[in-house]
Amino acid sequence: MAARNRPRSGPMKDDSADAHEERNMWNQIVNDLKRLKAIQTRATDVSKSIVEMEGRMAEPPTLKQIDELDELYREGVKLAEEEQKILNEEPNDVIKNVGILTALRTASEIEPRNNSQSKSRNPKRQKLDTDGTVDSPGPSPVAPIAAAKAKGGAVRAGSVPIVKEPKESKEPVVKAEEGSEGVKGPSAEKAGKFFIGAEVAYRLAKTKEDPQWIQCEIINIVDTAGNKKKYEVQDPEPDDNGQPGQIYKAYAAALIAIPSAETPLPDYVVGKQVLARYPETTTFYRAIVTNVKKDVYRLKFEDDNENEMEVTRRFVLDLTAK
Q1: pTM of the shown model
Q2: How far is CA 244 from CA 3, 216, 315, in A?
C-alpha cells in the first residue's frame, strides 16, 4: 500500500472557497517556479558567455567586442531583476506565497474545522490500551443511542444506528444492494475476499461501546485450531517515530473487505446507512447516503453538524451486508 500522510479533518462545504484559493495559489507557485528555472538556466549561459568573451578579448578590445560584452552584461542584469520580481514582488512573490500556503495547510491539519460539538475527527488516532496484537473473535454490539438533546427529544438522522426494521413498519423491505454480498466477516472469508495484500476495514477491539474502524492491509494469514483463520493486518499510518504502522491480529468477524477499483461496486440508495472512510483520513465512521454520483457518494456523517461531503465509492461499505 502506498504511504499516506497522516489524516486530517476533511474539508467542509463551507471551505470550498478556501480550498479553491489554495489550489490557485499552488498552481501559481508551480508556474512561477518553472519561469524561475528557465531564467536561471539562461543566466548561467549568459555568465559562461561573459567569461569566454573576456578570455578572447584583444588588447585593446575592439568596439564590437565591447558592444557584445555590454549586451551580455545588460541581459544578465535584466535576468537578475526578473528573478527578484518573481521571488519577492507582487503579483508573484513566490517566497511570501509559499509561506502563506504552508501556514494554511498547517492550520488545516492542526485545527479541526468542525465546532466543539462535532464528533472528533482527530488527525491522529488515539492510542489504544493494546500491545499491538489484538484478537477480535466476534462483532461488537451497536453503540447505544445518546439521549436526544433536540427539542421534543428527537434524534437527528445522522446519529441513528443501524437497527432491524420492525415487523409493523410500512416501509418496503430493501434487498441487499447488488455487489455488497460477501464483503463482511465469515461470508467475505468464504468468498475469498481476505488475502495477503487485500485492503480491509478493521474494527478496533478495545472500543466495543463505540466501535472504531480503520483502514488496514492484510499482511499475513495464520491457520488456527478448528481451521479458523487469523489475519494479521497493518495500520497504514506510521507511528510517532515514523516507523511502520501498528499490526493487529483479528478473525474475519472484525473485518470488512474494501473492494478494489476494478471490481463492480454496490449501488446504495439515498437514505442507506453505511460505513464510510472520512475524507483525507484512514478512519471509517457511520454515515447516511444523501446523493449518488458516478464515482462518489455524497454522505452525511454521524455527529458531524449535518455537513455533507463526497467519498469515493469503494470506501463506502455496507455494515448490514452478510
Answers
A1: 0.47
A2: 10, 12, 22
